[in-house]
């Protein structure tokens, strides 16, 4: 069995964390190391709007030391993912940080936007709720109050039905307290103002159906550890709301220094504690939850899940991705019937040509989505609709697709007609080599499938492939007249010929 | 209670050394072992003076008045300590003079003096003086004006009084000091019939002293030795627990740094006065002795070849009864964890593990903390080899390991040159944890192999100190261990461990929680019990916790070899606490903690003692041992220790110790002997069960480059 060691780095508002893990062929994740170093990114950004020079250097130093640990395990560059969240995202000089880090360490930091963040959170929660009793997780709200933003995911039967990201952050709240030089006695008042504003926005969105509430994040984990020092990280720790509020009250009455002293925390950890706990408690109260459950998963787990799933997604996950793709299609008045027809044929081709393309099941899903949505650009205009498809897909969020995936899908859709990839196509050229090959293979198949669906009458449902020397015979049972398809193939089959080295011939019956 | 709740630390340490001396006085011990105990006593005292007495001097000199936990000021402590030391030294010399030396003479090991040397021996010594000693040594005149030259610490020196000068009708004393330094043996072997003769070097020099002063009359030659204050900066073991503001103390440093002068009691009062004047010490710092100075040098005589009948029988370490060293240790550790009790069990498996790691192509990284290690350590050699083979090797070297700096420097640099990442300690803390991590990339993924221990990676001391080694590849411990390493190397901030506890982070809290747990159980009417074995108990918080536990009804039994500031058996305070100290041929050094935990015992091994320095000022580790079979082994070690009625002493209510002897008709039980015999039996049983295989030395496989 072969395993690979991967590293995921999360550049948060108050710390940089890295998890190193082994992923085996079946996608099992075994943690090796977890590192954590405080940085004052949130401090800088939420008060000044930019990252200070010294903080940038502190980030570089931290990442350099992380790199030393990665070297120890000989982690390959393609197995490293580094993401940055709200603090970096909002910094006016974020590019300076990204460039400086890239230059000093070769680590490329991706900035995670809200959609990406919730997706990663969902990925981190999913294995947990899948393995547990469904009854308790039938309707779940997952909430994380981060330093700069608060995420809420509503799940029903393991599917996302609603996500919310709000600019409520524990570090932002702390900043408010500092700016106003709030005395300890008035902390609660100031926090209440901040929190109630946000809760008001939520209105009654999440109040139906008595959901169970799972809290994530370092501040919540702190509570779990206080309640149960032997807390097993693969379980949820329940905390009665009453106990939660007691602890919050206790913390509200303490200065940061006292917190550090009493709980052996770093200043960065202590600062966010009271605001975060207050926000969680208020939210639970509003929902009428009497018990809060704390989970130990984080965005890093989501990143690891994603790395582990590089060779395929679970069925449930795929369904949600397709649902999300179709939703996007509806938004742009897509001819869903045609999309589905092409996708069905494209997938048959994909399966028949396994020995030719050697692509994993992950790419099958990408082909499916690209096929479904290849004509989405017609919403803008019929002329050059393939180009419109490309930019719509490149700039929309389809649940489950990471940045790399989106780019592949957008390119495949773009090349479903007209010109094959060229050196002058910058969006294509920006892809890594590996992905460029994938795009060529998938678009070649998409073109053939599109040709087969030329009549738009859903005449062809099943195809059988036979290989001759340098020829692929596609047998179409039960269809007499293939003129239309054949003439389409004259144009659309060229790319296939170039990519796979076979010309395509349609055969009746 | 009129008495203080705590025993004075200095006093307790001196009691420990008195117990060591007791072994020298024990006629049941073989003669050369008794001599060795005399040497150990002296060696111990030297360190005690430099570090503890030294810092008390310091503090006294600065006028700080804070009292120690037993309620004594530094002045009182110093006074008591020196009185007690005077008595101890007297006992030591009496023992040597009245018991050991007569027995040595009877056994044919004879100390020759200038009076007893025969003419042939005299000729031999003259030649030695002329050819070897005279060219190497130079006496220096003592002048009272100008700066005092720095005379060597702990070295033997001769003080020479010459006939006074008369300057302008005034008599001026003429004095010289001859430090005996350089590569010179302390004892010169001399031919004697049917035995071994030796003469101390100071006597040889005294015999020939006139040759250094051809035109002067030598009035008196006095061998002496001075002890200096250790450099406070490196001495975290100093009595600084008494001083809050160390910097202030350092800047106020005015006191002379000589804190002890030992000299022969044949010295005249004139000589003593002049020495006191030269070294600026009071009468209290003078130790007059009635025999050879610096017994530590007698280690060499106690190891004299050919006198095995005067030594205890050899107890060779048992070759790893449970592990097959000729096979991959990694494969074997994968199947189960192993525990070794050195020196009964050989240290070889640990050395072998590092060696196999260096040569194993699957190993990608090795991390280790080296505190004190041996000069030609095979572990260091293996680490260098591993680095040369491209593995990532990280070693934390503790340079502040007391008095070993120069030695550590040498091999640390050799490692650095080979590409080992050497980290010279952690700022502000002494790295005392004993840990080795081997990271191996196996087909099933990364696996971490660990050695966690109570003793240093030193094959030398592993033959003399009792210590525990634990070999495991438990993934939780592995993750903790990596995290621990990342934390102390500054790569990551402290995070909570799954199973390990580390000082200065959570170790003290873990101990207190475990004690608190027993207290709670006792209160709820459960059986509550603590058993532990370690070296020193001086931390007042821990002692208070034990008092509280005793009051709650927790039964506490402690095997504390050295310092113990806890008063056991005091009514209403500590009647449930018993403290036993074992002094035998091996230095008791393992640290094992056992908590009843409601009948589901929790057992730990650790590198830390219950001293403030260990819990707050050092990087230490504690490992839970959860495998039932291994836990039982540790329980057995404790059990055996508490059964000892030959080499065990129990601490009395009044702070003194009494020797435990077998009750009438009961069997004499010597714990170290029992453990040794058991280890031998186990080992021979295991080797019988194992087929003899021969392993030919084959040429190394070479990979041919195509």
What does this structure look like?
In chain A, the strands form three sheets. Chain A has a six-stranded mixed sheet, with helices on both faces. A five-stranded mixed sheet of chain A has the order 3-2-1-4-5, sandwiched between helices. Chain A is of the alpha/beta class and 509 residues long. Chain A has three domains: 3-112, ATPase, nucleotide binding domain (Nucleotidyltransferase, domain 5, 2-Layer Sandwich); 115-304, Exopolyphosphatase. Domain 2 (Nucleotidyltransferase, domain 5, 2-Layer Sandwich); 312-458, Hypothetical protein af1432, CATH 1.10.3210.10. Chain A starts with a strand and ends with a strand. Chain A contains 23 helices and 14 strands. Chain B has three domains: 9-310, Polyphosphate kinase middle domain (polyphosphate kinase like, 2-Layer Sandwich); 329-495, Endonuclease Chain A (Endonuclease, Chain A, 2-Layer Sandwich), CATH 3.30.870.10; 503-688, Endonuclease, Chain A, CATH 3.30.870.10. In chain B, helix 10 (348-359) runs parallel beside helix 11. Chain B starts with 8 loop residues before the first helix and ends in a 17-residue tail after the last helix. Mean pLDDT of chain B is 88; it is low at 239-255. Chains A and B meet through strand 2, strand 3 and helix 2 of A and strand 16 and helix 13 of B.
């Amino acid at each position: 069995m072969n395993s690979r060691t991967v590293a995921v780095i999360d550049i948060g508002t108050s710390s940089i964390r890295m998890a190193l893990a082994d992923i085996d062929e079946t996608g099992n994740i075994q943690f090796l190391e977890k590192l954590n170093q405080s940085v004052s990114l949130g401090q800088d950004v939420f008060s000044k709007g930019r990252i200070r020079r010294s903080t940038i250097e502190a980030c570089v130093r931290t990442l350099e030391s992380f790199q030393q640990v990665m070297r120890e395990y000989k982690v390959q560059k393609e197995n490293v993912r580094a993401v940055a969240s709200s603090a970096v995202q909002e910094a006016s000089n974020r590019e300076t940080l990204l460039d400086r880090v890239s230059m000093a360490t070769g680590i490329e930091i991706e900035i995670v936007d809200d959609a990406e963040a919730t997706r990663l959170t969902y990925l981190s929660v999913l294995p947990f709720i899948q393995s547990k009793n469904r009854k308790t997780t039938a309707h779940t709200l997952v909430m994380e109050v981060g330093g700069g933003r608060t995420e809420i995911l509503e799940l029903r039967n393991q599917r996302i039905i609603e996500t919310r990201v709000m600019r409520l952050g524990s570090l932002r709240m702390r900043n408010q307290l500092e700016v106003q030089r709030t005395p300890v006695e008035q902390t609660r008042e100031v926090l209440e103002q901040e929190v109630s504003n946000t809760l008001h926005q939520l209105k009654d969105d999440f109040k139906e159906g008595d959901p169970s509430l799972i809290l994530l994040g370092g501040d919540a984990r702190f509570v779990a550890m206080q309640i149960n020092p032997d807390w097993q990280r693969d379980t949820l720790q329940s905390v009665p709301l009453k106990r939660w509020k007691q602890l919050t009250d206790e913390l509200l009455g303490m200065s940061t220094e006292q917190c550090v002293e009493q709980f052996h925390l770093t200043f960065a950890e202590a600062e966010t504690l009271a605001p975060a706990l207050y926000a969680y408690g208020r939210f639970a109260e509003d929902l009428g939850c009497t018990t809060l459950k704390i989970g130990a998963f984080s965005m890093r787990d989501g990143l690891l899940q994603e790395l582990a799933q590089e060779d395929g997604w679970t069925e449930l996950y795929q369904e949600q991705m397709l649902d999300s793709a179709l939703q996007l299609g509806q938004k742009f008045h897509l001819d869903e019937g045609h999309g589905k027809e092409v996708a069905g044929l494209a997938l048959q081709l994909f399966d028949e040509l396994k020995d030719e393309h050697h692509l994993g099941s992950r790419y099958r899903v990408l082909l499916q989505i690209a096929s479904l949505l290849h004509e989405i650009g017609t919403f803008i205009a019929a002329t050059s609709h393939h180009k419109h498809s490309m930019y719509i897909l490149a700039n929309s969020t389809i649940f489950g697709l990471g940045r790399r995936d989106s780019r592949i899908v957008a390119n495949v859709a773009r090349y479903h007609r007209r010109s094959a990839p060229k050196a002058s196509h910058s969006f294509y050229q920006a892809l890594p080599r590996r992905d460029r090959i994938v795009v060529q293979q998938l678009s070649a198949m998409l073109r053939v499938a599109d040709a087969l669906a030329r009549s738009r009458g859903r005449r062809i449902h099943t195809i059988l492939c036979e290989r001759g020397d340098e020829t692929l015979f596609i047998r179409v049972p039960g269809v007499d007249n293939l003129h239309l398809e054949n003439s389409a193939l004259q144009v659309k089959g060229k790319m296939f010929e170039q990519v796979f080295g076979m010309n395509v011939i349609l055969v009746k019956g | 209670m009129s008495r203080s709740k705590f025993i004075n630390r200095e006093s307790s340490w001196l009691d420990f050394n008195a117990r060591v001396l007791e072994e020298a006085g024990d006629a049941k011990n073989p003669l050369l072992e008794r001599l060795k105990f005399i040497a150990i006593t002296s060696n111990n005292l030297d360190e005690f003076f430099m570090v503890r007495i030294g810092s008390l001097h310091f503090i006294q000199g600065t006028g700080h008045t804070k009292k120690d936990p037993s309620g004594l000021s530094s002045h009182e402590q110093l006074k008591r300590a020196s009185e007690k030391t005077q008595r101890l030294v007297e006992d030591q010399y009496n023992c040597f003079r009245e018991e050991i030396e007569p027995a040595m003479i009877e056994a044919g090991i004879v100390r020759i003096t200038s009076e007893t040397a025969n003419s042939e021996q005299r000729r031999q010594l003259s030649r030695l003086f002329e050819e070897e000693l005279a060219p190497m040594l130079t006496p220096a005149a003592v002048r009272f004006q100008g700066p005092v030259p720095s005379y060597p610490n702990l070295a033997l020196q001769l003080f020479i009084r010459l006939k006074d000068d008369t300057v302008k009708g005034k008599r001026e004393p003429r004095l010289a000091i001859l430090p005996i330094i350089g590569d010179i043996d302390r004892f010169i072997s001399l031919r004697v019939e049917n035995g071994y003769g030796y003469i101390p070097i100071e006597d040889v020099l005294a015999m020939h002293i006139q040759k250094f002063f051809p035109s002067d009359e030598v009035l008196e030659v006095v061998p002496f030795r001075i002890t200096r204050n250790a450099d406070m900066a490196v001495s975290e073991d100093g009595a600084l627990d008494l001083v809050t503001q160390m910097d202030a103390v350092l800047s106020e440093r005015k006191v002379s740094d000589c804190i002890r002068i030992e000299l022969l009691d044949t010295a005249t009062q004139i000589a003593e006065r002049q020495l006191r004047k030269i070294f600026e010490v009071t009468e209290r710092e003078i130790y007059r002795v009635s025999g050879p100075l610096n017994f530590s040098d007698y280690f060499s005589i106690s190891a004299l070849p050919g006198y095995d009948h005067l030594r205890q029988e050899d107890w060779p370490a048992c070759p790893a009864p449970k592990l097959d060293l000729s096979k991959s240790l990694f494969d074997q550790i994968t199947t189960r964890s192993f525990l070794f009790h050195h020196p009964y069990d050989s240290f070889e498996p640990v050395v072998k593990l590092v060696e196999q790691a260096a040569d194993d192509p699957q190993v990608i990284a090795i991390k280790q903390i080296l505190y004190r290690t041996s000069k030609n350590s095979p572990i260091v050699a293996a680490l260098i080899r591993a680095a040369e083979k491209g593995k990532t090797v990280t070693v934390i070297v503790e340079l502040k390991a007391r008095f070993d700096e120069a030695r550590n420097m040498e091999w640390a640099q050799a490692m650095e040159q080979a590409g080992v990442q050497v980290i010279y300690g952690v700022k502000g803390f002494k790295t005392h944890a004993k840990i080795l991590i081997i990271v191996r990339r196996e087909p099933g993924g990364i696996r971490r192999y660990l050695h966690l221990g109570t003793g240093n990676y030193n094959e030398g001391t592993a033959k003399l100190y009792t210590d525990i080694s634990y070999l495991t590849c438990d993934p939780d411990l592995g993750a903790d261990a990596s995290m621990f390493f990342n934390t102390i190397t500054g790569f990551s901030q402290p995070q909570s461990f799954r199973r390990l506890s580390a000082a200065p982070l959570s170790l003290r809290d873990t101990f207190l929680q475990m004690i608190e747990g027993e207290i709670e159980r006792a209160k709820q009417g459960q059986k509550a019990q603590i058993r532990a074995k370690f070296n020193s108990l001086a931390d007042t918080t821990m002692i208070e916790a034990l008092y509280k536990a005793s009051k709650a009804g927790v039964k506490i039994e402690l095997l504390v070899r050295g310092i113990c500031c806890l008063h056991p058996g005091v009514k209403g305070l500590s009647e449930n606490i018993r403290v036993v100290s074992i002094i035998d041929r091996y230095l008791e050094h393992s640290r094992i903690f056992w908590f009843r935990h409601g009948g589901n015992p929790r057992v730990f091994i650790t590198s830390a003692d219950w001293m403030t320095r260990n819990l707050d000022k050092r990087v230490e580790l504690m490992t839970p041992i959860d495998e039932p079979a291994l836990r039982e082994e540790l329980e057995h070690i404790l059990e055996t220790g508490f059964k000892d009625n030959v080499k065990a002493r129990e601490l009395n209510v009044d702070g003194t110790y009494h020797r435990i002897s077998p009750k009438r008709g009961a069997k004499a039980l010597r714990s170290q002997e029992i453990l040794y015999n058991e280890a031998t039996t186990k080992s021979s049983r295991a080797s019988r069960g194992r087929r003899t295989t021969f392993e030919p030395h084959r040429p190394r496989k070479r990979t041919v480059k195509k």
